[in-house]
Amino acid sequence: MKTFGKYKFGEWMRDLTSLANPIILLLLPLCFLRWTPEYKMLLIALFINELVGSLIKFFFHKPRPDGQKYSNALEKIDAGSFPSLHSSRIAVVYLTLAYLAPNIGFRLLFLAVIIVVGYSRIFLKKHFLADVIGGYFFGGMIFLGLYWWMAFG
Prior knowledge:
mainly alpha
């Protein structure tokens, strides 16, 4: 495995994938948006993402690449591969931040994070490419609903 300095590439990927951790995705937008209506709508969008994504994983279970075992309903959801909730979460939040960003630099940074997190999920063998693309699509649809709500609601 390649190393960068004292870190292995896999450790970098594990750290990058944590950018889609739900706690980080609740706190990071709060730094940019404060307690605004946009932030409140983003919280609702994340809740919808988790609820619908978990239901899809439960009822249409697709095993992860590593074949994670499960013994109850919550573990079954966690062991499901499609859609990648990391990818859908990161798409919802970072597309929203890119949309609201004040300049192109921030927008490009947010879009790059979306791509890197998706790649990290495949690299870490947590998802297949189709799972990540499905997560992006699912998150993108939720973002479009949020965008419509912000623009016309």
